[in-house]
Automatic annotation (TrEMBL):
HTH hxlR-type domain: residues covered: 1-98
Organism annotation: Modestobacter italicus (strain DSM 44449 / CECT 9708 / BC 501)
Keywords: DNA-binding, Transcription, Transcription regulation
PROSITE patterns, per database record: HTH_HXLR (PS51118)
UniProt cross-references to PANTHER family, sorted A to Z: TRANSCRIPTIONAL REGULATOR, MARR FAMILY, TRANSCRIPTIONAL REGULATORY PROTEIN
One MF term in the entry's GO annotations: DNA binding
Keyword Signal: no
tRNA processing in keyword set: no
InterPro entries assigned to the protein according to its UniProt record, in alphabetical order: HTH_HxlR, WH-like_DNA-bd_sf, WH_DNA-bd_sf
Protein name, as recorded: Transcriptional regulator, HxlR family
Length: 137
């Protein structure tokens, strides 16, 4: 858990992943959307890229030098349930009555997507169910 939080628990990291998942790809777009200071954003993009959450691909604006834009890797897409869960939690516990800036919806039907705990047997585990944590050391 500490290793995961060292990467995605840093301020701005999950916001960067969220914005890239929503289609923003370029540094200036990410800077404007997140409000992160340039040096911090540059650091988070580098860390997320080094960790394999994002990858870069080149693009060229006519008359300018080649630059890089950011896209999610499979590891980045695997963070989307976490973003949905954090968003759900915030709506329930922090933002009662205030609209969310992002609501996750299913592309097929448009219904709202929420995060759930589901056992490998297929049964949903509710928040009051007793969960057992196995420590592997």
């Amino acid at each position: 858990m500490a290793q995961v939080l060292a990467l995605v628990g840093e301020r701005w990291a999950l916001l960067v992943v969220r914005e890239v998942s929503l289609g923003l790809r370029r540094f200036n777009e990410l800077e404007a959307a997140t409000g992160a200071p340039r040096a911090v954003l540059s650091d988070r993009l580098r860390r997320l890229t080094d960790a394999g959450v994002l990858r870069t691909r080149p693009y060229v604006v006519p008359g300018s030098r080649a630059r890089s834009e950011y896209v999610l890797t499979d590891a980045g897409y695997d963070l989307l349930p976490l973003l949905a869960a954090v968003s759900d939690w915030g709506e329930r516990h922090l933002g009662a009555g205030s609209p969310q800036d992002v609501v996750y919806r299913h592309g097929g039907c448009g219904g709202r997507v929420t995060a759930r705990l589901v056992c490998e047997c297929g049964e949903e585990a509710g928040p009051q169910d007793r969960l057992v944590a196995q420590v592997n050391r």
